[in-house]
Amino acid sequence: MNILIPESWLREYLETKASTKQIASVLSQTSVSVEKIQKINEDFVYDIEVTTNRPDLMSVTGVAREANVGLYNEQIETKFSPFKIELLAKSTDSFPIEVKNDSTIVNRICAIVMTVKVRKSSKIISDRLEACGIRSLNNIIDITNYVMRETGHPTHVFDLDRLNTKYLTITRSQKGEEITTLDGKTHFLFGDDIIAKDENGRIVDLLGVMGSQNSVITENTKRILFFVDNNNPINIRNTSMNLGIRTEAAILNEKGIDPNLAMTALLRGIELYQKHADGKIESKILDIYPNKREQKSIKITNKKITDVIGVDIPLNKSRQILEKLGFEVNEVKETLEVKVPSLRGDMEIEEDIIEEIARIYGYQNLPSIIPSFFNNRPYKFHDSFYFENKIKTAMKYLGFNEVYTYSLVSEEKFEGPIENALKIKNPLSIDMQYMRNSLVPSLLQVIDENKGINEIKIFELSNTYEKKTGDLPKETLMFSGIIKKENADFYEVKGLIEEVLKDIGITDLIFKNSKRAGIGASILKGDEFLGEIEILDTNLIDFELSFATLLKLANTKKVYKPLAKFPAIHEDISIISTLDTEEIINQIGSVNKIINEVYLKDSYNESRTFHITYRDFDKNLTKEDVSKVRLEILKILKDKLKAQVRE
Amino acid sequence: MEEELIGIKNAALSFVLEADSLESLEETKLQFLGKSGKLTLTIKEIKKVPQEKRAAVGMLANEVKETIEQAIESQTQKLKNKNLSHVIKKIDVTSPGKAEPIGHLHLVTQAIEEITDIFKSIGFTRVRYPEVEWDWYSFTALNFPLNHPARDDWETFFIDEKEHDKFGPMLLTPHTSSGQIREMLENKPPIKMLNIAKTYRRQIDVGHTPMFHQFETLAVSENLSITHLKGTLDYFVKSFFGSKIKTRIRPYHFEFTEPSFEVDITCTVCLGKGCKLCKEGWLEMGGAGMVHPNVLKNAGIDSEKYKGFASGWGVERVLMMRENLNIDDLRLIYSNKLDFLEQF
Questions:
Q1: What is the ipTM of this complex?
Q2: Could you state, in order of their start, the residue ranges of all structural domains in chain A?
Q3: Using one digit for the tens of pLDDT, what is the confidence trace for A247-272?
Q4: What pairs with residue A203 in β-bridges?
Q5: CATH class of residue range A569-646
Q6: Least enclosed by CB within 10 Å: which of A474, A559, B245, B260?
Q7: Closest CA to A277 of A490, A398, A118, A82
Q8: Residues of B in contact with A394 (CB under 8 A)
Q9: Do B274 and B335 belong to one domain?
Q10: Which residue on chain B is closest to A424 by alpha carbon?
Q11: Structure confidence by residue, pLDDT tens digits, A322-348
């Protein structure tokens, strides 16, 4: 959450010789990040990102306190002056409204009744609020915002006469109850919102989030009920998010604010109403405070501080830092007993205290050391990432572009019955409602999105997700690709897969006619199913292989075969046969051990030409040796395989 | 006989010199030196020459043969050169070359490889853990309170499946930090982990894609302090962004680290002077911190004995920061327009 703070306002509480930039730099390094410094009129405005654990810094005084400690540590002259508020007018003993609180949703209520005069705010108040990004309306409303920005506690003001009630009941809303907020919008409540009801059961406030139209200040307002409520942050968050009302008050209240600040805010508000609105106190100060914050105490040893930070910081230095930050510190031997101020709800454990010391000491003052120990796991060079990388690189050099598509897909992109799909409960759109079980539909979309390009070769290596009952889904890394070109060739894709898999040590693939619908091939290694090639169209072929299975088979084994000492004899045989190429090659190859290699060299119409390499590793082959084997081959081709041999 | 040999020599030489192609030269060679060539036939006649003259005629015949052979050889070379220069003149060196085009690895893959390599060089091991995870690993064990906004329906994707009795709802990992828990439960310290994975958040606009990548480091050991976290961050930043780029860590807040830091680097555009893109000369890179003792405890590690540090940053983010690519819409990265992908 960001907050805008005018420098002139900050300097009301921070007396220092530090420059605008010095203050910003010290804050960024030791506390909260000053993201921008903007000049508005004659003032500079700090744009500060406050982390959600530090709602105490969503205020001028909070930031002033932090800056003071940082500057002091940098040895820049500085002084922080907190509020000194004295109640100037006498108060009466009575309060005109009976407030019934529900302590499970509201921690504290501080309130007062005053008479006021409504008019435009003074220039200083309206300028400062506008510089903070808050619209100036009139002096009565503006003071609630001014107090919030100054103290960090949101405040509210009712028109007492419009409220016109003897009772104010703080309660949880019922689902479906209706409220018109002061911006004129009507909301139906979700239930468990913190509301205030008048004696007639009318909702007069959505506490901590926004006031209601029926009790808001008008230009005719004479008497106000100035009301500071400290609420349960969880209820506030739900109300604010459910109704989409992100007021500054709601953003602050949902973080959990120190209830002790509520009285400070009330007193500061009274002071400002007296000064800027002719305010006169008309009641006693109401203070309902059921949920006091317990003061926390944390013990920490010097050794622990040193161990976590990594350098020796003198104990008195640590103590001084903590005290400047508002902690009460008791030093006992080598231990600090730290009492946490109620503002600091974020302090729980020793490490929280260490962070306070370390950040003010300055992270820039710590050395940089690369840890020299080694991982408990043995180093594995040929891990999954190694083979993934190898496949990706091979694909790249074969001319493929790698794509990353979303794992979340529409119903149409899920293959098979949609009941099997892992479904997103809160999808961003129906296009991203399911976890995919195939990469191919996403790749097809890429093809579709690049319509103008005639030749496309793309691939992706990503997970698919398979639902399992009562357990996390099975995530399987898939290796998929698509070739789009005129007359796309099945053999090109087959060859590509053979080459790429060879590169990760997987050879002797078996290709079978696909069992799945569509035309294509199933790819196997032994009995292990690796994936499919699918011919989608004359110009479109895809493939999808389980990388998880490939990984089981992948290896970097190296086998040495002695180089041949004697020359080979080569020969082509052309035949006409209806048998599969693989069958013919296997038959020829098994005739004699001097047949070193057989492959399909060419095919033309029905005729296929096989290239045969004869080689004996122990001697020179003679013409006679070869012709004898050749006769055997021809015999098998003709007699056993019933093939027609073209001489 | 001698005259005949001289006549053959002269005739052969004039044929050779006249030959204007390798084919006609080959013909000439056959005509004179072939099996039934003129010279070959004449030489066969030498045995009919009277004994006393035979040696001299023999020598002459050899000389004639060598002269013709040399002439053929030199004419062959001449003709070859002529052919080659003819070809060379046809080359237009400015015309485009021919090759099968090489493809492109995705930007994110390239970044991941580089990041992995840098952390590997200081002993971190890359791991991978589930992308679909239980709430417990992504939030509870990481010390997120029950009402933390990240657990809202509007920030994290939840899966429409039955909740686990122990681990709560099923979700898509909104960060790689669940890997910290998985790693510590599977592996005993000392640990030096690098977890790079897809992560998911319910956000889509020019600066956000619902799927993106993070890289997470986790180190757990005895005697580990903020100085080691600083050292590791500095090493990465110097290696990835270059030696001119400085790192600073400043206080921040995360549930699963204490102390927590935001890591800034010198703005890569203005080099620290301050510009539109940066925050007073600095760019935010991502979060880091000392592992919260509750997180160590939840993952079964003795938080008194061991300490840890962790960091988790966006892959796309560090890439954009380094390259100053000025990609005005991050969604382009996952749009898979080939015109875009082929630029990298």
A1: 0.85
A2: 2-80, 98-288, 297-365, 384-553, 569-646
A3: 999 999 999 999 999 999 999 999 99
A4: A197
A5: alpha beta
A6: A559
A7: A118
A8: none
A9: yes
A10: B159
A11: 999 999 999 998 999 999 999 999 999
